[in-house]
Amino acid sequence: MRMFRCLLIAGLLGAAATVQASPVTYKLDPGHTMVLFSWNHFGYSNPTANLGLGEGTLVFDEKDPAKSSVDVTLPLSNLDTHVSALDKHLKEADFFNADKYPTVTFKSTSVVPVDGSHFKVTGNLTVHGVTKPVTLDATLNKVGPHPMMKVQAIGFDATATLKRSDFGMGAYVPMVSDEIKVRITTEGEVPKK
Asked: In terms of Cα–Cα distance, which of 193, 130, 139, 186 is closest to 162?
């Protein structure tokens, strides 16, 4: 009986050791991250572009999500609409002016849990040299051991709507919509030591 208890305690301690302590820092994976934004073009179509990800860090505290944070850098060199002429135009001075402002950044200032898997993530978005607060509606897709990477992983989706004119990019409004819809999907892993 004593041996059984020792084995049980050892098993419980082993199981406890596999649980990640809060908070956990994840490196976001550019290969599994899309930062999509779309707009209306003269009422005819709704093009979409992907900013991709340069680098990003997500700190997630499962026990106290309000202590979580995110910090990302999106290089405009990654901007992709699948139309090279449009990519070039969006990087010019009447839109992003990528030569002068080569990156878009987002740094969270607060995370407010809505329920166990939904959060309001507010932060400072810097585009075109202008910084404004933006709130993302974020959904936790999954957190746990990654079956291929063999490390702790996390995945989120998030959405937001903003006005590009707030960031000094008002060219062709209202024929080209001021309202921009943003949709993000991302996953990250705990870096291997």
From this structure: 130
DSSP 155-175: EEEEEEEEEGGGGT--TTTTT
Phi and psi at residue 136, in whole multiples of 5°?
-100, 135
Residues 6+ apart with CB under 8 A from 159: 136, 137, 181, 182, 183, 184
13-25 tens-digit pLDDT: 443 334 456 899 9
Decide: 192 and 169 in contact? Cβ < 8 Å.
Answer: no
- pTM, two decimals, is 0.87
Measuring CA to CA, which residue among 188, 62, 58, 23 is closest to residue 136?
58
Please name every residue paired with 111 in a beta bridge, in sequence order, or none if there are none: 121
Q: Which residue matches tokens 């208890």?
A: 5
